[in-house]
């Protein structure tokens, strides 16, 4: 079972040491498929899975665009393409090597080391034959950090200023996420301690959720969301067809998210495991959606589509920490509990007057915590104590660091638009451009 | 000349249009509106929180006809739009002071 990502540098170094003997062998005969096949297949896995996870950026954009009011849609789209692109640049500039530092103290690697790719037309003797190409590995890892930033975007919609949000994304994707990611996937102290998070229920989703929670607290709720007497005033989204499209795109992208995290496709066992992960991932999403469908019918007399969409995503987040080991029935009940968590915690956040526009905190943080705990049911190598330690470590670090950064941004440049700007919509006040200029306002 | 304004349930529009053209009405104006009357609003739940829907979607129909035809039009709309349930709508009849057809310049009854 593949519990932990390898450090790409360590592998490259290993290949380097092996190089002289390989080079000598090459003079005798070119390497056969047995030697280069796994490298080619795993590189292919990273590329394909990376494309799928890339498309999740579209899924997040559509989901968020559908769940905000039409006067804020252009802003939400601008934030999404901005954050993805910033994440891509920051991850090259420092994130990738900070997250995968090779040998390091286990807590923080080196800053400001930009990524360099394999040389053009790299020879088999110079490639990390027991892993994959650096380009594919880098790309696959960078689409994950973009997902983390997308999570923050949805929770803070309809009231945050564009530039302070993007400034937060710069630090989140360049510093916070890579540092905490190195603890586990970079081979740091949590990996040493035996923490288990296959594709990132905690490392990716909870981290995004914690950053979003800190932001939502500092930013405050949207105008009119909570009445003086504690009454919650729902603000229905503008386009549930877009929100549904976004959810299906995320669901599709998740096959890459979890399947690619097998990190190997060079053996019968590995490629079979990838397909096993696809099946489990799909099952968990379906179970989360059905649970939310039934539960909202039972609680509110009518099913709530927005909760069903959140339920599917919560199922996906729940299975992400261990999508390989469970049986299909295991994936079903783990995903179902994720759906249950969302339906119960969305109103709970409203009681606390924490305004999360798209349900990002219940879906990514709460279901992420659940998924990380659920690892112990099917993975005998994981212990509850270590899982809780990991959850707490990521929580404390990301929440506190994010809280400090949000407060600094608030004090320095302000993070929230004015009341009038918020009422008129961020599309006109921040961007001077409406998403639907020809339609009447809903 | 009379202007007949009717608010009806949206799904009744097609029936009302057919009935009116059946008695010789040659034009009408239709607007999607929201409002409340005796039906008032209702409450719904979004993401676990209750909210009031204070304005219900309706169709507003405006028909300009000769005074002689007004009663028949009112009667036809009433029959076609009625479901017997609350929220069937209301009909108002107003006098028209002047009418003009833009293309020909015809006025009043000739313009209808």
Can you offer a commentary on this structure?
The complex is a heterodimer of chains A (442) and B (112). Chain A is globular, with a radius of gyration of 22 Å. Residues 6-20 of chain A have low confidence and may be disordered. The longest helix of chain A is centred in the N-terminal third of the chain and has 35 residues, at 33-67. Chain A has helices spanning 8-28, 33-67, 73-99, 134-155, 162-184, 189-193, 201-219, 240-259, 268-300, 305-320, 328-351, 360-378, 384-412, 419-424, 426-431. Chain A contains 15 helices and no strands. Chain A has a single domain, classed as Ammonium transporter fold (Orthogonal Bundle), CATH 1.10.3430. Chain A is mainly α. By secondary structure, chain B is α+β, with helices and mostly antiparallel strands. The mean pLDDT of chain B is 94. Chain B is elongated. Chain B has a single domain, classed as Alpha-Beta Plaits, CATH 3.30.70.120. The longest helix of chain B is centred in the middle third of the chain and has 15 residues, at 67-81. In chain B, the strands form two sheets. Chain B has a four-stranded antiparallel sheet with strand order 2-5-1-6, with helices on one face. Chain B has a two-stranded antiparallel ribbon with strand order 3-4.
